[in-house]
Design a protein that fits this description.
Helices cover 33% and strands 11% of the residues. The chain has 8 helices and 5 strands. Strands 1-4-5-3-2 form a 5-stranded mixed beta sheet. The chain is elongated and about 130 Å long.
Length: 218
């Protein structure tokens, strides 16, 4: 069956009369709370009237958690404390473990050398000669190192110190002499004369110098 169609709204009135049960009534908007309040009340009376349906809250019997006070240290006192630690370090009252830094190196070309590393790095052996390679090229440093080592062996020196620097003034900021010196000490030519080597104590150059323990000639 073909459904009814309507060309315009002219038949709306007759349609509503035929089907009155399908007409949906318009819901009235609920009255505002303000419109339900009586007129002529003061502000206090109006407040009392508005709050008459509200139930008051009771006090909680659970005790409130007590927080520990936060202590904020004085910034000036922290700076003074840091300065005091620096002064104590400069005057040698505080020691720094060089092994915990990235500058520390050690090696034991001789099999027995690993048992002597602790005594060597802690300055147990007296330094009998020292060589400063600061500012030299690799070729110059190697030639001077060979002469120095040969002279120390002839004199039967046991512990010597070589200052190689930290490389702060090199082209790439790398300790080139330090790395080269370690390679020389590990070669067959020089290593057969070396028992062990470690970075020096702070008062002898720290990470910028090496203690070298030599094998004495028989």
């Amino acid at each position: 069956m073909k459904p009814h169609t309507y060309k315009n709204l002219s038949d709306l009135h007759s349609l509503l009369q035929k089907h009155p049960s399908q007409v949906v009534g318009v819901q009235e908007k609920p009255l505002s709370v303000l419109t339900l309040q009586p007129e002529g009340l003061t502000e206090g009376e109006l407040f009392e009237h508005s709050m008459k349906e509200v139930s008051p809250l009771r006090w909680n019997s659970i005790p409130v958690r007590r927080w520990h006070p936060v202590e904020i240290k004085n910034q000036s006192q922290q700076e003074e404390s840091g300065l005091q630690l620096l002064l104590e370090f400069v005057h040698g009252k505080i020691s720094i473990d060089l092994e915990a830094t990235g500058e520390y190196v050690e090696g034991a070309p001789h099999p027995k050398g690993k048992f002597l590393l602790h005594n060597l790095r802690t300055g147990h052996y007296a330094v009998e000669a020292h060589l400063d390679l600061h500012g030299l090229s690799i070729c110059e440093a190697k030639a001077l190192f060979e002469t120095f080592l040969r002279d120390c062996l002839q004199r039967s020196f046991g512990c010597v110190r070589i200052v190689h620097g930290r490389g702060h003034h090199s082209k790439d900021g790398q300790p080139v002499l330090k790395e080269s010196l370690q390679r020389w000490l590990q070669t067959r030519r020089f290593g057969r004369h070396v028992v062990a080597y470690t970075s020096a104590c702070l008062h002898d150059g720290g990470g910028g110098a090496l203690y070298i323990l030599l094998r004495k000639r028989h």
